[in-house]
Design a protein that fits this description.
Length: 351
């Protein structure tokens, strides 16, 4: 069977080939109804964009890269699913790359992997510096997730400081006073761990509780074994913690295992709350209270911002239209989050 072409989609949808092309390229001047009809025709016929042909015509491949530290971390796996879905709505194909938190791999991503076949990059960095980002600015267009390396860079994330403050306030409202932070990092910087630690400290201060740097339990990585080990340190440290604020759900799930092995009741003896709302936390025993970022909104904001940057980079510059073609200033998009309260802070009666 012959591969469907644009003219087949146009005939099926009852529109012109130009309209189909406009929908495929996500041009704004198309009505919602027409866009829906064309996308339905694309789905029904199984039409796929000829990437090689597009690259020759426009210099753009329609491929973007999503670069995350570890694909087997549930948060990044769930985020990748949302990014792929959002990219499909803009007729973009996603190349998923695992950096391992390695600076060399992250630098390769910033450079477009040494090829012009990637139109843009969505990157969740761990090892890059602000100097790295400035050196590779705009080649290709890049949107950062999570860690904010440079205030002048495009960036999408939740308000991590506010989210951690709300999580800590929830624990305080439940009568918890000895709250330890697994993964906490009390140092200057724009990283996620630093922001969440600042939120924790702000909540303590607002409640009139003293901050003790020893309440921060650093970890080598943000995985379940690290959370388990940090919880063991908390139990053997001579104090009497009554809550653990874990800076992601993997740490929290590891901590739950250690608490169980030591006969510690959750939440009666120690309450536990995490970040990310990954699927495993909905099935743990007890189920895990957590900060839930709107992953779909993170993905959509990142794809739309990157698409705008790609269009901006490929648009011919006309000096006469300079004011209207002025580049969009760097964007720091803040996406919604919410507290999801489950058994690890509320008890078995709360579902």
């Amino acid at each position: 069977m012959a591969r469907p072409r644009i003219k087949d989609v146009a005939r099926h949808a009852g529109v012109s080939e130009k309209t189909v092309s406009n929908v495929i390229n996500d041009y704004v001047h198309v009505s919602d109804r027409t866009r829906r009809v064309v996308r339905e025709a694309i789905d029904q016929l199984g039409y796929r964009v000829n990437l090689a042909g597009r690259h020759l015509r426009t210099g753009r491949s329609g491929i973007i890269a999503l670069v995350v530290p570890e694909l087997d971390v549930p948060y990044f796996a769930e985020l990748a699913r949302h990014v792929i879905r959002a990219a499909e709505q803009s007729s973009l194909t996603v190349l998923v790359h695992q950096s391992g938190g390695d600076r060399g791999h992250e630098l390769a991503a910033l450079a477009g992997f040494g090829s012009d076949f990637v139109d843009g990059v969505i990157l969740s960095p761990l090892a890059l510096t602000s100097d790295d980002l400035r050196e590779h600015a705009g080649s290709p267009p890049t949107v950062l997730l999570g860690e904010l390396l440079e205030e002048g860079a495009d960036h999408v994330a939740i308000d991590n400081e506010r989210a951690a403050r709300e999580a800590t306030e929830h624990l305080i409202a439940r009568g918890r006073r000895e709250i330890l932070v697994i993964g906490g990092r009390d140092s200057p910087g724009l990283g996620t761990a630093e922001a969440r630690t600042r939120g924790y400290r702000a909540a303590l201060s607002a409640a009139g509780l003293a901050y003790d740097p020893a309440a921060l339990l650093p970890v080598a990585a943000f995985r379940m074994p690290d959370g388990a080990e940090a919880a063991a340190r908390a139990l053997s440290g001579g104090g009497h913690p009554d809550a653990l604020l874990c800076l992601n759900d993997q740490l929290a799930l590891g901590a739950l295992r250690t608490l169980h092995e030591h006969g510690v009741r959750v939440p009666e003896d120690i309450a536990v709350i995490g970040f990310d709302d990954v699927e495993g936390g909905r099935y743990s025993v007890p189920t895990l209270s957590t900060v839930a970022p709107d992953k779909g909104a993170v993905a959509t904001a990142a794809v739309h911002l990157l698409r705008h940057r790609i269009d901006e980079a490929s648009r011919p510059r006309d000096p006469a239209d300079a004011p209207s073609q002025a580049p969009l200033s760097p964007q720091d998009r803040v996406v919604a989050h919410r507290l999801v309260l489950r058994e690890s802070t509320e008890g078995a009666a709360h579902r």
